Structures are given as structure tokens and as C-alpha cells.
Amino acid sequence: MAELLTSAQMRAIEADAMARGDADGATLMERAGEGVVAAALAEWPDLEAGPKAALVLCGPGNNGGDGFVVARLLAERGWRIELFLFGAPDRLPPDARRNHDSWASMGRVRPWDDETVAGLVSSGDADLAVDALFGSGCSRGIGAIAGQTAAALDVFRAAGGRTLAVDMPSGLCTDSGRDLGGVLPAALTVTFHRARIGQFTAEGSAFCGRIAIADIGLDQDVACPGAVALVEAPGRVIGKAAAIGGHKYSHGHALVLAGGPGRTGAARLAARGALRVGAGLVTLAAPGAAQLECACHLTAVMLRAVDGPEDLTALLDDPRFSALCLGPGMGTGPREAALLAAALASGRPAVLDADALRLLAKTAEPVAGLHGHCVLTPHGGEFARLFPDLAERLAAHPARGPAFSRIEAVRAASARSGAVVLLKGADTAIAAPDGRAAIHAALYDRAAPWLATAGSGDVLAGLVTGLLARGRPAFEAAAEAAWLHADAARRVGPGLIAEDLPDALPAVFRALDL
Ligand SMILES: NC(=O)C1=CN([C@@H]2O[C@H](COP(=O)(O)OP(=O)(O)OC[C@H]3O[C@@H](n4cnc5c(N)ncnc54)[C@H](O)[C@@H]3O)[C@@H](O)[C@H]2O)[C@@H](O)CC1
Ligand SMILES: [K+]
């Protein structure tokens, strides 16, 4: 999985490289500027055809330093440059100052003026607008500095204007992807060495446009401890190909608990997801009164009657049941509360979704009984009921950066509950009690907005359950299920209904050669 960094982690990587003597700040800045120009030309090849005009907005830190390098490199290609600096040249940090001076010997540095810059953006004369105002050091909103420019860039971008953010769109929090106030929108964000968390969560993707990662010569083989993983396509480990000769029991047995009559659809969706993702067997455990309804709908999924907790406990005497799913359409009455307690007491890997999360939130000690083989799959509302203090911090407008992020929220929720927590969204955030964290981003070229449809979460719960049943550890099962779920949705496309998701999985697996 690719790494997503915070600004502090990136600073530490740069500092290590400099301490080892691999590169100095000036070299990194030069490579950063070169990377930006190369990425712009790769993104918009028509910029290669003859000299163009660029508007370059530089800020008071090293992000501004990158901007001066970009201005110089474009001017060397014959481009016409209008450059504005927010801040005083003599207060620039040393590398930025050197690049300022070298640009100043070639062209003009105009003092920042929001209205003038906005007017130039709106004139449409620039072939490229470069935002090097603030990068990873942006610590608060910039509406008062660049509000008119942000509005003009928004219109410019919407009309197809080429707006490029150096490292991060100014005003966007690198660590949380949250709008600190007045973010400058970009069509392309060129970041360095590794992508940042803020580009894949919260408001990040709305402002970044697309992401390009420029190599600035830092060691690619050094992993960053504590980095957040960007969930990518699962490897062969989840496929069945490696297990030729295995029988259905070697692929696990998932047990999905259903609600009463008229409410069994959600559990049936989850069960179908568990079966399609590769659990060897899937049984639906429904109350006696719902047996006929379920039997009318099931073929490969098996059916057992479970009315009270004693039935569940008796069923779980069979050690071959390797994972449970509780929540979809289950109900929140005393029977379901007792079933949840019995399921947790069994210690089996379990997915707790929907009504199971409501039940947890209703108890005095919501996290009691949870363990490291549990996966909680809340959407934002369910998360807020379980962890109201964390949700409140996420909802509050951030006064300063780094702002509280969805990743910090799930890490805290996971540490508190002792379970893996998967907070659903286009930017699904996943954390394990040991501190590992990942983002699954159905964003950019993996966007699947049609996934927001009734029953889609039930299928996701089923996919996690199926992978757990097959023996995947909880954190990995959650991450892999999120990827498969979104990929299945992308394969079906607009018009998708939840029933389509499990049935799209064979094509997903075939494409992955699993
Ligand atoms: N040698 C290095 O450290 C390298 C840094 N790089 C660039 O350096 C950037 C980070 O540089 P810095 O740490 O200097 O940070 P920034 O350039 O993002 O900005 C920091 C400056 O802006 C001020 N500031 C922050 N938010 C403000 C706000 N809302 N209103 C007014 N002033 C505000 C700060 O007080 C500080 O003076 C990266 O994003 C990247 O573009 C790259 O050149 C690669 C090498
Ligand atoms: K920027």
C-alpha cells in the first residue's frame, strides 16, 4: 500500500536526508520546482507548444521558494511571468530567499495584492496559474489574504483554466484535508516524494483536482514509521487460486444474523457479499418467524433458526463458524442486545454494523466486550453516536492547522474500543488498536458516487465478514473489503443498486487475476 504522510513526517524525511548528506535544502527545492514544471507539462502537453504566460503566486515560506524556482524555469523556456509575493523578501527562509534573488535578477516581484491578482486570474490571460502561496506550513485560514483570488481561481478552474498547487492547495490542511478557510482550488496538485493524508480525505480532493507526485531524489526505499496507508488493490493473498484442492471448509464459514419478518433483506445482502467474496459457506441465522421469508430468497446461502442467545451460543459450539456479522436489519430490541452479547462473548471475529452499532451506543459502556477481531463499520452518524466527543471535534470548524482529522478520529476510536474501526465515506478511514491506519479513497479516478445507495453498507459488512471468515486479520479484511466494494461499484457504474455489488465481484477478481 502507498504511504500518505503528515507534514511533520515529510519534514522529518527531508531532515534525515539532509543530515545524512544525501541532499541539501537548496537541491531539494530545485528538484521540487523541476518536478512541478515536469508535472504541468505532462498533465497539459499543449503547454509545450510555444512560450506561454504564467501567473505565479509566492508565499513567505519554502512553498514560495518552490514558486520562484518554477518562475525561473518557465522563464528560461521563454514564458511570460507575472509573479506576486505575499510577505517581505528579507524575511524569506534562506533557500527561498536565494531563489527569490535569482528570480529577481530575471523578472519582477510584485507585492501581494488580492484584488489585482484576482483581476489577473479573471482576465483569463494566464495559461497557467501556480499557487505557491502556502504549502505544508499553512497554519490557518487565508480568506483575509486571498479571498478574492480563491473566488477567481474557482471560476477559472471551472472554465477549464489550468491551476496548479505546489505541494498543497493554499489554505488546505496537509494532515486533515480540512478547509482552514479560503482554500485556493487547483486542477492539479504536485506534491513531493509521497502523497499527503490531506489530499485523500475530508475536503482535500475537492481542492486538489488531481494529484501528481514528483520524485525529489529522497530515498524511495525508506518506509516512514506511522505513515497512513492508501488502500490499493488487494494481492493474491485473498484469492482462492493458491488453495487449489481446498474444500469449502478450508475457506471458512460466515454466520450472518438476520432480523424479523419483513426486515431480512439487509442481512441477505450481507450474506451474499460474504459468499461472493470467498467464504466457503455462509449461513443466515434468522428468527423462526422469518424462516419462510428467508428460505424463499436463498439458494447457496444456508439458513438456521436463531431466536435467542442460547440458540446462537449452541450454534457457535461448531468451531467451523469462523466469523459473524451482526447489524444489517437486525433490530435493536432486547433479543438483539442479548444476541450481540452472546456473539461478543464467543470471541469470534465479528463485523458490527448498523443496528449492532446502535445497540452498542445504547449501552452504558459501549466498548465493553469488544476485541481486536471485531470490525466496527459506522457511517458518520453511527460514529457520532458511539464516539460523540470525536465526532464533535471533526465537525467543529478548525481554527488552526494541523486540524483534527478523520484518521485521528478513527485511531482514537480504535484505541478506545480495542476493535478495528472503519469510518465509511468516499474517504473511508480505517484504524486498528495497534495504531495502524489506512484510507480507502473512492476519489479522483476511483470515484464511485453511485455507491451511496440503499443496502451498499450491508454488502460492505458482508465483504468484511467473508474475508474474516477466510482468516484475513481484521484490519486487512476491512481495508480489502473497502477496495473490492468500490471496485465492484465502478465496474457496474451509474444505475448501481446494492444487489449488483456482490455479483460484480467475479469480474473484479478476474481483473486482479485472483
Ligand atoms: N527544504 C525543504 O524543507 C523543502 C520544502 N519544500 C516546500 O516547502 C514547503 C513548506 O515550507 P514552509 O515550512 O516554509 O511552509 P510554507 O511555505 O507553507 O509557509 C510557511 C510560512 O507561512 C506562514 N503562514 C502559514 N499559514 C499562514 C496564514 N494562514 N497566513 C499567513 N501566514 C501564514 C508561516 O508563518 C510561515 O512563515 C512545502 O510545502 C514545499 O512546498 C520543497 O521545496 C522541498 C524541500
Ligand atoms: K501551495
From TrEMBL:
Record's keyword annotation contains Cell division: no
State the UniProt keywords alphabetically: ATP-binding, Isomerase, Kinase, Lyase, Metal-binding, Multifunctional enzyme, NAD, NADP, Nucleotide-binding, Potassium, Transferase
Cofactor comment text: Binds 1 potassium ion per subunit.
A Gene Ontology biological process term: metabolite repair
Domain YjeF C-terminal, residue spans: 231-512
List the catalytic activities from the record. Answer: (6S)-NADPHX + ADP = AMP + phosphate + NADPH + H(+); (6S)-NADHX + ADP = AMP + phosphate + NADH + H(+); (6R)-NADPHX = (6S)-NADPHX; (6R)-NADHX = (6S)-NADHX
* Sites where the protein binds K(+): N63, D131, S170
> Which domain of life does the UniProt lineage start with?
Bacteria
Q: Which HAMAP family match?
A: NADHX_dehydratase, NADHX_epimerase
PANTHER family, per database record: ATP-DEPENDENT (S)-NAD(P)H-HYDRATE DEHYDRATASE, ATP-DEPENDENT (S)-NAD(P)H-HYDRATE DEHYDRATASE FAMILY MEMBER
Quaternary structure, per UniProt, is: Homotetramer.
Query: Which NCBIfam families does its entry note?
Result: yjeF_cterm, yjeF_nterm
Q: What is this protein called?
A: Bifunctional NAD(P)H-hydrate repair enzyme
Q: Which gene encodes it?
A: nnrE
